Every structure is written in structure tokens, then in C-alpha cells.
Amino acid sequence: MAGLPMMRSAEQTPAAGTLSPVRLATALRLLLLVMALWLCQMVAAAAQSEGSGGPLLDRLTPEVVEAVFPGITRVELVEDDGPAAAAAYAGEEMAGYIFSTLDVLRAPGYSSTPFDVVAGVGLDGRVTGAVVLFHREPYLMNDERRTGQLVTFLHALEGLESRLGATGGLEPGFVAGATISARAMRNAVLEGAGMVLGYRTEMVVVTEPTIDTINFKPMSADELTDMGALARARITNADLAAAMEQAGLGDYLPEIPTVGGPNDLYADIVFGYANPPKIGRNGVTAETFDQLVNGTPEGTMAIYAGSLGGVFDHRGARFNNLSAGLLLERISVEQGGKTFRLHKPDVIFSRGKIADLLLLPPDAQFDPMAPWTAQIYASARLPDGSLRQFQLADLDYSLPPEMILMPPPVLAPAWAEPWIEGWPEIAILVVALSVLTAILVFQGQLTRRRKLHLWVRNGFLLFTLVWIGWIAGAQLSIVHVINYIKAPFSDLGFAFYLAEPLIVILSIYTAVSLVLLGRGVFCGWLCPFGALQELLAKVARALKLPQWNPSETLQRQLWWGKYASLALILVLVFVAPDLSSIAQEIEPFKTAITAMFARALPYVIYAVILLGIGLFTERAFCRFLCPLGATLAVLDRLHLIEMLKRRPECGNPCHLCERSCPVRAIEKSGKIVMAECFQCLDCQVEYYDDHRCPPLSKIRKQLEKAKRGPAPARPAVVARKAA
Amino acid sequence: MAGRLNRRHALRILGAGAVLGLGAVGLGTMRGQPEPKVWRGEVLGAVSAMTLWHPNPRVAERTIGRMLVEIDRLDRIFSLYRKDSELVQLNSEGRLAEASADLVLVFEESLRIAHLSNGAFDPSIQPLWQFKARGGGSKEELGQVLGLVDHAAIDLGARSIGFARPGMAATLNGIAQGHITDRITDLLVNDGFEQAMVELGETRALGSAPGGRPFAVGLVDPADPRAIARQVELASAGLAVSGGYGLRLDAEGGNHVIDPATGTSPGDLTQVAVISPRSIWADALSTAISVAGEAAAPRLLAAYPESRAILWRADGTVVEA
Predict the structure, then answer these.
(1) pLDDT above 90 for B290
(2) B20 vs A615: CB contact, 8 Å cut-off?
(3) Of chain A's two ends, which shows fewer C-beta atoms within 10 Å, N or C?
(4) Which residues cross the membrane (chain A) (predicted)?
């Protein structure tokens, strides 16, 4: 516990508190001191062994501090309402914070007892180190190898950004066998650091690129020059001679005489934008910088000009000269064709350092984010004793990105994640829906080709069943309809529904197609269970299983079945939500499609019975029981476009399509009941088939007759006559 | 002739039925017992996990994605570490005119158990918590802080929440996690999930583990947190454990279960586990019983259907209530 009092602020030290009444006898004082120290040690020792919270400073032994924040000489508890933390100082300079995950997060690891990891975070937002003080992680206790790995793992957090999800360091899997504990500790350090720092720095929220006037760290002129934060002119005597030569003053002497040979330094002048403390505060003295921050109007801009060496400085002497207009004659700043000259009242001078802040008022029309140039002028002494100014150097400057705070990248909202992550599935679905749209738009051309229609139809159904249904698991169901109905009354955000891309896309496509063409687009093409029934029915017919369909009157009654099941579900949803999930089992979708029959036997039997019925009565479930189908059928009344073509002869006298319709959606009158039509387009294939559609076939025969013409007929007659 | 045809038909029909059945069973076994999809992360500062069983792994993955959207929404309501969360706003302003239904519901449940337990569970304990976490203070200061802890001074409207006294603050630690756990479990049920383990700060089992057996959850021994004291079976129920073995807040043996009436930690029970159909109830009950003691347990449990508790006494004996 040596050095402990050094690390505490005075009022925190119990020893100091107990000792302050100085009137006690020396012996008593000594005794008390010993006791206080002893108590202090006890508390600290207890804190270590029990992992109790205890005051944070007691846990920050010099060893701990050295491990989590190297180079720190003093820590001091921060007295505010934020997450508990100790400010860490390197000398007089505050460098960051040290905190304990136990105080800040109380995050438990694998065991439910929260662990205590002490970590440091620098003002630059990066973790400086972490050590575990206490834990009850079962797979780490009494395991030296893993404990060693944990120490290494925590050490590797150094330099990581202080936010949950930051990348870098070692993977939690490094601590083999205690991955969960390691991950929890890592996350607690990163999240805790973010919280501790976030509460105390204003840097967190910028909405647009903003110059960083908050963060500070001590940096040398060389470091700043290297990162481009300072533009630097190191001018040797030779450079001076060259500049004078160029100005046509090569025959004269400079105003400020040179010292040494041609390679000796004549001037070493730096320029930079001073408002970021990393530049300004490091350039001028702290008091000078404070004058800029506290003594100038809000929005004042400042340029740092400093002379680091040589005999020539940027100040000159004549700025004190009222007759010379108090002008700093040796420097000017230029941006976009506008030149700024500086006068004595515009300058905050440093004492003891030739380093000044050149002030530009808020309305100076100077853009610190844009590049600018600084000019340095020197003078030559002409024979008549007068001075002639010439340009000594020209420095191009632009503020480096390190000095600009960028707004946090616009984080995609939570619902966007599935859209980004699921793009291959989305792409496949969009292509499929485009194909379907093309099928529907060009149905005339398609249905003229019976074979092609058969392949396209069966191919698409197979895709719907296997990909949409079994692979992607995107079977639209009555549950989705109910969720959408309930959405306005539930607290679930809109985002919750958006987070299911395939269902959202299918729902929108279904809604649009419902309004345009009717229910059949979804039921007949996009419903995986419907596809399964239809494909099975086709196999059944190929195997010549007997087919049965109800009479028109009976069918009309059976159609009500699906409306009844929809009504039952809707009523239950609002009356008895618990029972509604059972009612939703009317749909065998979950069993047959999403779960692919991997469910309890009763469900499988139910689904198989429905599919079995479908072998003899095509799509019996869709037509007579499906609540989702009923929903769409009710809304089908609204559809706008009739694409299925009919002839006057349809229904009277011809009944071909009526019999060809696999779901008997065509009435005896020849009218297609669109609410029952699955848009399979079989009737349209018949419609265009001039060998099967009677009116068309009649025309074809007449045409053929006309084409063959009377010519071949006559010889026949002649022949017969001849015979 | 007709008879032969019928027999052939009948055979075909039977055959088709058999093939269909076999096909379904075949597909089912092809899918087989689903591998669980597991998500791990943090919710409200607690290490959390969701384990979902679904025959189609893509469906489970996408569902997890959707649940995270909902968790994110709830986090924006209950987090004490987000400056913009509803709860933080309530604590700083003392009043919320338009609280979310979730916040109102959790306050309703909190106040219900607070009334039932005569304040043994008290959501307005936050000032005392902060006082303890700061390292305590003098008797007068403690008295002042205790004056701010009063669940009866929380005004709960249909949509609004407010504190009757300035300086009051609420914490929903635990009970909010219980709500999130329930909420996600309900959504999973609504999505047709039959098996899931939801551990979002509280533990809740949806259905049972693969094989039809209940999930086995180990409860640690309060005397030795490294050892599993007993296993409880959990099927379609929530579990919450409240114990004093965790964090010690002060030197007098106070721990993270604080009696709102006195500001001290009770010593009667060392650990309380409650199994209840809803996680929010389990959390409310376990905390309330921890503070109110063994004697209050039967009465409190009776108020919540199908709830039971396992109590660890200070002397090490374990009783069920």
C-alpha cells in the first residue's frame, strides 16, 4: 500500500482527516496514524480479496495504475454524477480516466457474480490498459494457464477504441475454455470506457465535420509537423541568399544579418491553425492559449505563428511602431485571393516564447477547414539605408483530418441489418418476382404455347415450393396478416416489421398484385403450400388417380369454409389471444413448409391429410379452408384489371374452359369467379388452342378449308363421279 | 368390370396416401432435429443470449435479427446509460407526459409488487442505490435519501409517469430485463417458435429442451458461488434469482439487495430463486422475497399464478415455497 496517500486527494485520506486536530499529544497522534494506516490497509486488502466495490481509489494501487495507464503520476476521484471514474494525470496534465467495470457496469461474466476489471481510457478515446482485480469466473479460478491468457488478452485491449463492438486486440477465443468470461470482460471494458469518457467530454456529438477544439495531448513541434498540423519553414543562410537573388536583391545584405555558414539556420518558422488545443496549446504557453479560449469573442479564429530557431523571427520589431500601423510586417496569411495582414491588437503574444496567436474575428471570412498560405517576408538593406521587403518563404497549409471531428457515421437503423445481410436472398426473390411479372404481362404470348406454359408454370411452382418455402422459409401466412392488422395498436415499431425483408417484399408484391389482378397471383404462384398441393395434384393426375369436384351449388357452400376459418381466427385474436395461436394451426404452412414436416405427429398427420385430399380435389385446402386465401379473396373484389380473355361462346354453348379449370373457378355461365381463380392460366391455354377451343377450332377449319380452296375438292368430286 | 376398376382405384388411392405419408416423414427426418441458433451479446449491461430451435436455420437467424430490432427499441426505453432513454429522461425531469406503453407496463408491475410487499420491492430506490454506490454518508444524509424512496410517491397515469417529490429517481434494474425477456419470448411464440431459451437479463424457457425434457438450469450455492447447488427444471416458465452473495457495497456487509425502508441489506435469506410463468413476475417476486423475508413468501407467491420459490436461509438450509 506504499504510495497510497499520494494517489488520493487530500480530503479522501482518512489519515489526514483523523490527524487534522493537531492539538493531540504527539504519542496519540502517532498511535492514531498507525491505526489509520492499518485500517486503510485492511479495507484495501478486503477490497482485493472480496472484490467488493469499496472506494475506487483504494483499488488503484500504484501497480494497478501503472498497468492500466502507464506514465500516470496521480489519480483523483471525479466528483460528478457520471459513471464513477478517477481522473488520471501525467504531471499536471490530465491524460484520461481510470475506472472499474464493477462500479460502472456491474457486468457479470459466466458466473452471476460481477467481475471487477480496472481499465484506463485516454482522452483520445482509446483504452490504455486493463487488469482484472476480482472475478468468480468458474473456468478461470485456480487455472493458471487460462488466467495468464486472460492477462494477455486484457493487455491486448490497449489502443482499442472505447466503444462496444470495437475491433482489434485478441479474439475472446484466445482465452480457451473461458471465452464467455473473456468476451464479457472485453465488452465491459470497451463499453465502460465509452461511458466514462462519453459522460465527460463534449466531443461525442458532432453533426457535421467540426474542428476538434476539445481534445488535447502534449505533442512536440516535430510530431505536429509530421502529421501536417504545422507548416514549417526551415530557412538556411543559403536559402536566404537564394530568395534575395530571386528578388533581385542579391547584391545587398539582409536587414537581420546572418550568423554562421550557408548551412546554418537563419529562420525556423511554423504556422498552424491554433484553435485545436493540440496545435494551439502545444504551440503557445498555456496562459496564452487560455486567453484565446476565454478572452476572445465566441467564434474567434486564431493562427499560430512560432519561431523555433535561427536569428530571424516572424515578429520583427516594428509592430510596436504606431507610425508603421502596428503591423506585423513579416507575415501575412492568404486564402482564396484574400490576404490577411495582422496588427498588434490582433495578436496574443506568448511570454518567454516567440509563439503567437494571430486572431481573425468571426466575420473575417476565413475558412479554417480550407487550405491557406502563409507568407514570410524579410527585408534587404539598400545602400541608401532604406529597407526593401522581399518574400522569404511561402507555406501551404491545410488542417489535417486528425484535427477535425467527424460526425459519427450514420449508423444504419437496426432494421436495415437484415436487408444488408440478406441481400443474396433478396436478389433471388426480386429476380423471381420480375419473372413472374413478365409471365403475367406476357401471358398472351406464353399461353399460345401449351408446352412452354406447362414448363414455366411447373418450374415456377417448384421454385416457389423449394426455394421460397423450404430454403428461404418465406411462406406468407395469416400470422403476417394479423400482425399487420395489429401493428398500429402494438408498440412494436415499424422497424420490427421491416426487419424481415423477404416477407416485406412478398407482402408488398401480393398487395399490389391483389389490387391489380386479384388474389390468384399470390395463391397461385407465390404460396409454397399452394405450389406443393398443385404439384402433387399434377402427379396424382399423371398417375390417373380419380378426381372429384363438388357440384357448383355445393362448391358455393364449401367456399364459405375459408371465410369461416378466417372469422374464427380474427375473433380469437381479439377475444382470446392465447387460443388464436392454436386456431392459426388451421394453416398447415408451418408444418409442411417452414418446419418441413419436422413437427409433432398430430400436426404432420393433419398436413398429410390435407395434402391427401388435394390429390383427389385439387387445392381443396386453398379453396375451402385457407384463412389467408379468404383474406385475399375478400379483398379480391377490388381488383382493377381483367386479363383473362373470354369469348362470347364461353359458357354458351362451350364448357371447355370450365372443365379445364383445375379449381373449378369458372361457372356454368362461363364467368370466371376471380375470387376463386388462381391465375394458373390453363383456361388461357385452351383459349388460344385452335385445336381445342371450339370457336377457334371452327374458324381454323373454315380457314383451312378456304386455304385448301375448292381446287382440291373438285377433282375429288370428279374422281368420285368418275368412279 | 366396374369392381375391378374400383379395386384398382382403391389400391392407387391407398398407395398415393402411403407415399405421401412416407414422403412427409422422410422430409421431416431429412430436416432432423434442428441445430439451435445462438445469439450472444449485451442487453442493458447484462450478458445475454437467445437460443432458438427451428427446423429452418435461416428462419431462426432472421428471427434473431428481428428480435434485435425490438431489443434495441426497448433498450432506448430502459437503459440507464443512454442519455436519451425514457427512464433517464424521467429521472432527470421527474415527469414523462408521453411514456411508452412498455415503460408504463413495467411501472405498473413494479408498483403492484411494491404494494403487495409493502415496499420491500421499490422502484424508487435509485437515490439510495446511488448513495450506497458513492460510499454512503452520514445518518442525516441517509435519512434524507430514504425520504426520496417511496413508491407511493410515483404517479402512474395511463400514459404518464411522474414523481411527487423532487430528487426522486427510479431504477427498473431486473424488472425491465424481465419485461424484455417476456416481450421477446411472446414475440417468438407469435412467430410460431415452440422451443427457445431466452436469457436477456432474466431467464425464460419457451417450451422444453430438445427431446421434450425441460431445460435444466443450475443454481449456484450462495455460500460458494463456484458450486452449483441444485438444478431446477424449466419448461415454459421464467426463472429469476436474487441473492446477496454478489456485490458487497459497504463494509458492514451490505449488499446489492437493499431494504428500501432502512437502507440496509436484509440477512434473513441468502438467495431466492423464483419460477413463474412470466419473467417480470419472477424478478419482482425474487427481489421482494429477498427483502421481505421468508415469512412473506407464501402471501406474495399466492398473488401470482403458478409461481413458486426456492429459498436459501442464512443457516444454509433450503426450503421451497
Answers:
(1) no
(2) yes
(3) C
(4) 426-447, 459-482, 494-517, 560-579, 600-617
Q: Residue B287, annotated ligand binder?
A: yes
**Does residue B314 form part of some domain?**
yes
DSSP letters along B125-185, please? GHHHHHHHHTT---HHHHHHHHHT--GGGEEE-SS-EEESSTT-----TTHHHHHHHHHHH
For residues B99 and B77, give the distance between their C-alpha atoms in angstroms, rounded to a whole number. Answer: 9
Domain count, chain B: 1
Q: Residue A184: exposed, middle, or buried by beta-carbon count in 10 A (0-12, 13-18, 19+)? A: buried
For residue A341, give the 3-state DSSP assignment.
strand
Averaged pLDDT, B42-69: 86
Q: Where are the beta strands (DSSP E) in A201-294?
A: 210-211, 231-236, 253-254, 265-273
Contact residues for B315 (Cβ-Cβ < 8 A; gap 6+): none
pLDDT at A13: 38
Q: Is the Cβ–Cβ distance between B200 and B181 less than 8 Å?
A: yes
Residue B22 touches chain A, beta carbons under 8 Å: no
Burial class (CB in 10 A: 0-12, 13-18, 19+), A368: buried
Check which CATH number belongs to the domain holding B223 and give it.
3.10.520.10
Q: Is B250 a known ligand-binding residue?
A: no
Q: Give Cβ neighbours of residue B17 (< 8 Å, ≥ 6 apart).
A: A612, A615
> In whole angstroms, what is the distance from residue A80 CA to residue A445 CA?
77
Are residues A546 and B13, on separate chains, in Cβ contact within 8 Å?
Answer: yes
pLDDT in tens, A319-345: 888 777 888 889 999 999 999 998 888
In a domain, B101, yes or no: no
pLDDT at A289: 86
Chain-chain contact of A52 with B247 (C-beta, under 8 angstroms): yes
Nearest CB partner across the interface for B81, out of A43, A195, A496: A195
Q: Grid coordinates in use for A441?
A: 404481362
Q: What is the pLDDT of residue B1?
A: 41
Beta bridge partners of A103: none
Domain ranges across chain A: 48-200, 210-405, 416-695
> Is the model's pLDDT at A31 over the cut of 50?
yes
Report how far residue B155's alpha carbon sits from residue B124's, in angstroms, rounded to the nearest whole number.
11
Distance (Å, whole) CA B152 – CA B156 = 10
Contact B82, B73 (CB under 8 A): no
| C-alpha dist (Å) from residue B165 to A141, A305, B148, B150 | 47, 56, 7, 9
Query: What gap in Å lies between CA B134 and CA B249, rounded to an integer?
Result: 9
Strands B215-221 and B224-234: antiparallel
**Per-residue b/e over A226-255, b at no fewer than 16 CB within 10 Å?**
eeebbbbbbbbbebbeebbeebebeebebe
Residues ≥6 apart with Cβ < 8 Å to A117: A100, A101, A102, A130, A131, A132, A133, A135, A154, A185, A188, A189
Q: What was the pLDDT predicted at A339?
A: 92
pLDDT, residue A4, reads 36
Q: Does B158 touch chain A (CB under 8 A)?
A: no
Cell of A15: 489519515
Task: Report d(CA B310, CA A229) in Å as an integer.
Answer: 65
Bridge partners for A307 per DSSP = A269
Q: How many other C-beta atoms lie within 10 A of the C-beta of residue A666? A: 25
Q: Following CA atoms B258, B262, B264, B266 in sequence, which dihedral angle do they give, to the nearest 10 degrees? A: -70
What residue of B is the nearest CA neighbor of A49?
B248
For A141-154, write each residue's pLDDT tens digit.
777 888 888 888 88
Q: At what angle do helices A528-542 and A601-616 cross, to 10 degrees?
A: 50
Please enumerate in sequence order all residues whose Cβ is within 8 A of that of A623, keeping only pairs 6 or more positions apart, or say none.
A555, A558, A559, A562, A629, A663, A676
Q: Tell me, what's the ipTM?
A: 0.78
Q: Is A410 helix (H, G, I), strand (E, B) or coil?
A: coil
Looking at the domain assignment, is residue B128 inside a domain? Answer: no
Burial annotation A35-59 (CB, 10 A radius, 16+ → b, else e) = ebeeebeebbeebbeebbbbbbbbb
